[in-house]
Write a structure and sequence with these properties.
The chain is 8% helix and 59% strand. Strands 1-2-3-4-5-6-7-8 form an eight-stranded antiparallel barrel.
């Protein structure tokens, strides 16, 4: 718990140096695809990333996710992953549409001792407001077999979006 509080405090301090940084948190859900459909039919996720503007319309930063693949059978444990990596976002000139990619390594924390694998998540998003965004995505944890993947819809919230608008 102390580590989580330290990380949040660090991110808040980093944000005070620049108004161009974004701390996004979100939830998502979808249906599994590929060779996983026999084991699981739906998956859910929680995500967070801290993006730094490096050029006009391009942001990069660290990303942390939590993925939960719901098992079809009660006898089989669900698969749980914690992907850690980086995120990149490209905004259009209107800054309402954006494309992105999250890439990293997913640590398997399932009860049966899954080792994890390479995580990637390409997405296409739309800014509904300054604070809320929706996105369509494909998320996958690539392993030898099977690849844990799903397509879905996500909603993200920019924690600092209204902080400076009142001044």
């Amino acid at each position: 718990m102390k580590k989580i509080i330290s990380i949040i405090t660090l991110l808040l301090c980093l944000h005070s140096f620049s108004q161009e940084n974004e701390l996004n948190v979100g939830v998502n859900g979808g249906v599994t695809v590929g060779n996983l459909e026999a084991v699981s039919s739906i998956a859910f996720g929680v995500e967070g990333n801290y993006l730094f503007d490096i050029f006009d319309g391009i942001s990069v930063g660290p990303s942390l996710n939590f993925l939960y693949f719901v098992s079809k059978e009660n006898t089989v444990d669900s698969n749980i992953y914690i992907p850690i990596g980086g995120a990149v976002r490209f905004n259009s000139f209107e800054e309402q549409f954006y494309v992105g990619l999250d890439l990293g390594y997913a640590i398997g924390i399932s009860p049966e001792g899954d080792d994890g694998g390479v995580f990637f998540k390409p997405l296409l998003g739309y800014e509904v407001t300054d604070a809320f965004k929706i996105n369509l995505f494909y998320s996958a944890v690539k392993k030898n077999s099977p690849t844990y993947s799903y397509v879905g819809l996500g909603v993200t919230y920019d924690v600092f979006s209204n902080r400076y608008n009142n001044f």
